[in-house]
Amino acid sequence: MFEGNLLVVDAAVKGPLLRVEQAAVTCGKVTQTMMSRVDGNVYLRAGSSQPLISWAPLPEAACQAHFASLDALRQSAPGVEATGKALLAYEGAVFRSPELRRFELARVPEGVQPLPVPGEIRKLLGWEATHLPGALPASSR
Q: CB neighbours (10 Å) of residue 78?
């Protein structure tokens, strides 16, 4: 399961934000994806010339493909990222200060509604109801 994540890259990052791939030797043999659900994720990319997602398995000859948009992925893999959002060519601050390792959101991107972490997951992780998950700063040295 891969749900409710924020994936952010700047224009310097090459390749897909999410890679669900398989080896060529398994093409036609492995027909189910390794994840039971992929949905509700938000993809922010500063540049839009790179693929958004690499996905497998698919019925195509190569068993996998790169997708430039969530709509294209949804056509090839129905049910995947039904509620996900992609903000391509995104400009503006996402995090408070990556240089200072402050990865709190500077603001919620337009059109995105943060969802609470389910209670059973919070309990498992030992988080309070007010805990906001996300990228953690590097440990102090």
A: 8
Q: How many distinct structural domains can be found in the chain?
A: 1
Residue 9 belongs to a domain? yes
Which pLDDT tens digit goes with each residue over 60-118? 778 999 999 999 999 999 999 999 999 988 888 888 888 888 888 888 888 888 777 77
CB atoms within 10 A of CB 112: 14
Q: Using pLDDT thresholds of 50, 70 and 90, give the confidence band for residue 133.
A: low
**Does the residue 122 lie in any domain?**
no
Report d(CA 78, CA 75) in Å as an integer: 6
Task: Tell me, yes or no, whether 107 lies in a domain.
Answer: no
Query: DSSP letter string over 9-68?
Result: E-TT--S-SEEE---GGGTTT--S-S-S-EES-EEEES--SS-SEEE---SSTTS-EEES
Domain around 77 = 2-91
Q: 9-23 pLDDT, tens per residue?
A: 888 889 999 999 998
Burial of 95 (0-12, 13-18, 19+ CB in 10 A): middle
Asked whether residue 99 is domain-assigned, the answer is: no
